[in-house]
Amino acid sequence: MHGRLLLAFAKNLGYGNSTYAELRALLEGVKHCKKMNFSAVDIEMDSKVILTWLDKNRCGSWYLEDFWEELQLQLIAMDVRFMHIHREGNAAADWLARRGATDGDVEWQSMGEVAPLLRGLLRVDKWGLPSIRRKK
């Protein structure tokens, strides 16, 4: 399955800080994995905060505790490996987050369906090429 798009999604998560957005995105992604019957999953993310929580098996923010507990329930009976990736290597996820914030919920199940810019970001990732962020 490496390098092949199985599902891309964007979701409007409402208002919150970056930790809220990262935790909610992780929870939504894990839910999609379970819905697609994936029991073994590698998850790359750029949030060191969430990765530290996962490593310590403890949520660090009281107001995110409900989402944290739901995530823990979703992870039962799953073989999940979490890995840190630098923000520059997470360009497709950042694009999807912006899309969800501005345009609402959307899902794509094949490369032919996704927007051209996202398709390009996914190809750069698949080919292992470096991604360059442009400051605005």
UniProtKB/TrEMBL annotation:
Q: Specify one Pfam family.
A: RVT_3
Gene Ontology molecular-function annotations: nucleic acid binding; RNA-DNA hybrid ribonuclease activity
RNase H type-1 domain sequence ranges:
2-99
Q: Which InterPro entries match?
A: RNase_H-like, RNase_H-like_dom_plant, RNaseH-like_sf, RNaseH_domain, RNaseH_sf
> Which named protein is this?
RNase H type-1 domain-containing protein
